[in-house]
Request: fold
Amino acid sequence: MRRQYTWDDFVYYLRHGSSPATKLIITVNVAMSIVGLILASVIDLRGLLEFSTSYWLLQPWTLVTYPLASVLMCPGDLINLFFAALWLWFIGGSLERGWGTRVYTFFFFIISAISALWLAAGALLLPVASLPAKIGLLGLWMPLAPITVAWAAINPDQQILLYFIIPIRAKWVAWLTVGVTFLVFAQRSLLLGAFALGGCAAAWLYVNYRERTPGHSAQVIRLRQSRRRWFNPATWIRGYRDRKRLRKLFGEEDNDRNRWR
Reply:
């Protein structure tokens, strides 16, 4: 008998494993992008979530909501979303496993806000004549730059395959990310390109501070997390529900076997 997946199975998938926050961010990003595309004629979801240097003071929540949705207007946008989600799965999952879900989630949204604020500060310093009507941020690519810098600062010599073909070390990936981020915004102004790197600088400073501060090693963090889980009643209840769910699952499989004998 073919098993039907329920909402509880989906929640179980998100909450369990080594990187639940990364999975949730990717899932929300994909879902919000699809919803925005379907309901484009009903609600301007992009206008509600997109960060804009022109009116972000009227919509302060966009400091942390702009990474949660992407633009899906053509097949190229879908490819961009796929590679952004894949890259976040790789480096974001790595950071979450090392730092813990709580610290990583806090870092993700704080560094997203810092990147947006630095960009807004750079836009304020530009002459009015050279300033575009609006500089907007939407999608994962802007926070991915400082997250990449943080990951590379921790694993500078780790080698990956760029585009699944070119072997390259993490530190050069970080420099390449910084260069691309600068060039994207420097097309409008060199000053804006420099300010767009504020999030990358903040990520690098945070990682260096964290690595030099006692008590922030991965082993110490994992030990603290295991102690919190051990003394947390919610963990006991969750474990009981998981065991009950598995017993029910294997019981259904046994019944299916007996039925076909």
